[in-house]
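Put briefly, the fold is written as integer tokens. The lines below illustrate.
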Amino acid sequence: MLRPDQFARYADLSRPTPDPRLDPWIEHYWTVAWNLPAGTTYLSEVVPHPAVHVTVESGTTPHHGLEMPAALVHGVVTRRFSIPLSGEGRSFGIKFRPGGFGAWTGDDVGGWTDRVESLRAVFGAAADDLLRDVLGESSDAVRAKVMDAFLLERLPGPDPAYDRVIAIVAGLVADSSLVTVEQVAERFHVSVRTLQRLFRRYVGVGPKWVLRRYRLHDAVTLIDAGEYADLADLSARLGWFDQAHFTREFTDLVGVPPGEYAGR
């Protein structure tokens, strides 16, 4: 999330804990609630991870161009995710692990990328029941239990290919020195072509995109924490061969150059 301190002045964010049996596929639940005075709008912006989200949303104004309430699937977002918050609204979300939604549904996740669709496309009429049951509870903790029950009734079977994908993704997150697809392929003893195929099918985007996105997340985190000597040093540490290229990619995604972002 960009400018989290500013966001906290307009909305409340929390992360209820999912049932541990869901851990192989689901990273966490999240909730956002806001109630803004008439005439007030806040633009919430996020640099998305390579993850599919499922949401149950309600509010006095449309979200994502859709009337509320709604149960939705959000494919991986390849650009900066921006949503204006106004009036009163509330969202309960599931953040799947990279590849987790593909393992759960059997879908080619590349077909969901940069799309927001009704959850009926995945679960049929059961999505309407989930929407009703979640919205029927006011407590986020109870909503989490409702979501747990829905998901535990639909646990997927074993998927060795997904296990391989999630191990590779964990390696990308843990080791910021991995900056090329070739390095990743060598580290995990897989061909570049196989790596690309696995990521398109399960994650929804290619491994090069995932690498760049995680390194840009690292950049935002380090700038927020002030843990860098200068921008030239930061760009080199994270795998960019020149600062100008890093500045272009950072600006395209975050909306402002890294120097301006650091000064906010």
Notes: DSSP finds twelve helices and eight strands in the chain.
